[in-house]
Design a protein that fits this description.
120 residues; mainly beta; five-stranded mixed β-sheet; four-stranded mixed β-sheet
């Protein structure tokens, strides 16, 4: 069997494709643990700025700014999260256990917003 490699950019859209490829090539199932999506905090923005995921999936928020601190949080009556202060290079995992639409905000940079739609 010949394997082909390709260069994937570090975006959330590439991770589900990689998970599917791993499932197809190894036979492993990721359904029980969910999928991890990586979101970058860079240039006072979340990249990407919106995601649609499923309940049980994880969003890893990574501070990719070399000199800026971030502080990701969700303040919603149905779901809350607080990463605390994130130094450059720090990562925080958010496991979405509830369906709905949630805004991940930055407590340091008020214009930063990540809209996450969580489906069953």
């Amino acid at each position: 069997m010949q394997l082909r490699t390709c260069q994937l950019s570090r975006t959330a859209s590439a991770l589900p494709v990689l998970a599917v490829l791993l499932t197809l090539t190894t036979g492993a199932s990721l359904a029980a643990t969910g999928i991890k999506f990586v979101v970058s905090q860079r240039g006072r923005a979340f990249l990407p700025g919106a995601l649609t995921i499923h309940r049980g999936d994880t969003v890893e928020v990574v501070n990719d700014d070399g000199d800026l601190m971030h502080h990701a949080y969700i303040d919603d009556p149905d779901f809350s999260f607080d990463s605390g202060d994130q130094e450059p290079g720090a990562k925080a995992d958010i496991v979405f256990t509830k369906a709905g639409t949630f805004n991940v905000l930055c407590g340091i940079h008020p214009k930063m917003k990540l809209a996450v739609t969580v489906r069953e």
